[in-house]
Amino acid sequence: MERVKQLASHLIPGSSKGLAAVEKKNPDDVVITMAIRSPLCKARKGGFKDTKSEELLLEMFKQSVARSSIDPGLIGDITVGTVLIPGAAYVARAASLAAGIPEQVPVQVVNRFCSSGLMAVTDIANKIRAGQIDIGLAVGVESMTDHPDDGWKPQSELLAGHDIAKDCGMPMGWTSENVAGDFNITREEMDEFAALSFQRAEAAQKAGRFEEETVPFTAFVKDPATGQRTTKVITKDDGIRYGTTKESLLKIRAAFPQWNPSRTTGGNASQITDGAAAVLLMRRSKAEELGLKVIGKHVVTAVTGVPPRVMGVGPLYAIPMALEMTGLTKDEVDLYEVNEAFASQALYCVKQLGLDGEKVNVNGGAIALGHPLDESTLL
Fold first, then answer.
1. Domain of life of the organism in this record (predicted)?
2. Count of CB atoms within 10 A of residue 250's CB?
3. With a threshold of 0.70, does the pTM exceed it?
4. Is the confidence at residue 97, as pLDDT, over 80?
5. Is it the case that residue 235 has pLDDT exceeding 70?
6. Residue 158 covered by a domain
7. What domain range is 285 assigned to?
8. Which CATH number fits the domain that encloses residue 56?
9. Of the ranges 8-12, 162-166, 241-245, which one carries the lowest mean pLDDT score?
């Protein structure tokens, strides 16, 4: 906790804190008036496998314009979070123009790997809070079919020979095994956690709980014989495995037998996925002026670094930082969304923080729904 206080000390807002302050409505609040996403589809074999990443982004922009209830010319800035798209800044600018967003609306790209979508939201929120803009659009997009994550290897011995820096080039599966081994997260615990993710996602999909946030997406289908592409409309996530149990997951072999303790599998790790999402933010006074419904309020973002060899444990430190900055207790938070890159790291964070499991990822997480790097953290 002392480390959390040190990390958060320079970020704590000067205004009053606590639940009452968070719930209070002020004209200068940064609020959300639209939050939508595409269906999440399995990379290489799901609904978007023949749709290019720039086409996903174009469709996301089109959907944002259609569902925002504002003139797109009012948007002061757009930030796109993406990890793998080559020349992402060119693609983002071109896609926004092709979607009918006026040329005077600027676009930029951010990349903080799995939190890139959240960083897009944070960037727009901070610009509104600072008075630079009144309205902004945050977008996340990733096609892991179009651009698989091939990792990175240092080219210089100055990095390759550094004890910590060299770990940045190691595969994420290795980091999952490090978390499982270092912190004694068992295979049975991991599979139990993963099974619950699938079961909750299945229940949520069957109950229609994703329908309000998920918009129908135009995708492409390639004829394997002719190579010609036609369009189709995708309406729901296709990666949720119905009927998943801990017992069925325990039968899956280790995905990384080369690294001890070899507890990570294709069943208790996140799926690689294609998808996109968008969030429209603005000053509360502007939302009221435009007659828009406020569906959420951005209060604070907390970020911190952790050793690369256990990169997934960031929420263990970022969540207490956010609580410290807002003056909230962990029990005053109704719902938590913790990234499920791997069951090992998500479960470790939940256990160490002492979170109520009934409040965590109540509609399933990335293990069940998929993890298109940036976008899976945006909504």
1. Eukaryota
2. 16
3. yes
4. yes
5. yes
6. no
7. 2-147+165-377
8. 3.40.47.10
9. 8-12
In a domain, 250, yes or no: yes
Q: What value does the CA radius of gyration of the chain take, rounded to a whole number of Å?
A: 21
Is the pLDDT at 182 greater than 80? The verdict is yes
Total number of domains in the chain: 1
| 154 belongs to a structural domain | no
Q: Which residues contact 216 (CB under 8 A, 6 or more apart)?
A: 233, 234, 235
195-220 pLDDT, tens digit per residue, is 999 999 999 999 999 999 999 999 99
